[in-house]
Please model this.
Amino acid sequence: MSKTLAVFAICLAGLCANAMAQDAKTVIANAQKALGDVKSITYSGSAKDVAFQQCGSNAADMNCRGTHDPMRPINNYIRVIDLTSPASRATGATNNPAGGGATQPMPGTFFQGITAQQVDVAQPWGNSLEFYITPWGFLKGAAANNATASKKKVDGKNYTVLTWSPTVKAPSGKSYVINGYVDEKNMVDRVETWLGENIMGDMHIVATYTGWKDFGGAMAPTKIVQTRGGWPFFEVDVMAAKANPPDVATLVPAPAGGRAGGGGGGGAPAPLVVTSEKLGDGLYRLTTGPGSYDSVIVEFKDYIMMLEAGQSIARGEAYVAATKKLIPNKPIRYVMNTHPHSDHTGGLPVLVAEGATIITQKNNEDFLEKALNTPRTLLDDPLAKNPKKAKIEAVGEKKVYSDGTRTVEFYHVSPVPHSNGLMIAYIPKEKILFQGDFSVTPGQPANDHVKALVPILEKLNLDFDRYINVHTSAAPQTKADVWKAVGK
Model:
């Protein structure tokens, strides 16, 4: 009897799976029809974006108020999605920081290209997902990749959720998943997926499409909002759309001298060779030479404190290994983060896996705590392999760590344009100031960031001689170098 029931259950499961597949095909076909069964579509309007984990300078709003705040405006935004190639391109007029530490934005061009090669679902998901999280790209992918269908209610609204996976796997070996929410009018209101990200773990990427409108034969949403890890990332206010434009192949040309999308190759990066500079008893600067992101390690009686963790997993691992050789048999209890930009947080997962507590400015606490405590099932990095809860100790305006022999002081530097969560470290015994993004080039005038820092240093009245950058300097720098750069 039990064997008969088992066979019946297997058959029933097979029938259900077949019904779900059939239902998914019907939902896909109906949604494609509702969107006009287009071969290509272009839409235009105004947009805004942001560099991940940073903020976007613009003429009206120069100071960073927080992660992804403000965003960078993009005017005359145009996107074309070609389902036949398939490919996608977008362009617009925007502004970019002038470079060299200047804060005045300069006119620039936004361009995003997704090539036919990148759209291939066997290629890295991070490159192709921007095509597939569009309603049109999602439905094309669903039709070609055995989507399944389920029912779900979100915010009181009934949806059929189509789900499929690209063939490419995550670094952990797990399949990626993408869901599209189709409403009762067969419109795609939301598409979501997950991507492994160094700080954000299984980063949730959500694109919402609202205010669907018939633009003279082309169905398009009037508002597009994309978030990553719960943070604003990209928005478009759509003012016009056109289905099957005849000039689709040339509508959004790549910038002169530029390429539509990235390329591969280059091989694995060379191993990092860490060298150390002794700054005092139990005090070292770690570097890998030109182009390095430097860290300082400080020995206390019972533990080690690392100032900055390196800009990548590889650098974080290399610096932890070097630290254990220089100061064996003591745990790395603390790691200081100067600010939450992606090139200054990259090594933090390594230190969290080591059990270190992150010292950061209070304005960064919410971001780092949520991000680093997100599941990491798509990754195979040290924190994914050795999961630990990230511990944060937040600094308001000042915090001092001391064991009676060694003292390190932390200060919030504000207001400055670069980040609202910038922090410097001061080591009084050796008169060392350690900072993240206030670089000085001897013989050249100070940039806008250094100009903002110096009045704060004067107010704090810190008695420092050595000035150490996270972005390594060609030669040791002093307070005199900083003061000379600002004309003092």
In short: The two ends are 93 Å apart (CA to CA). The first helix runs from residue 2 to 34.
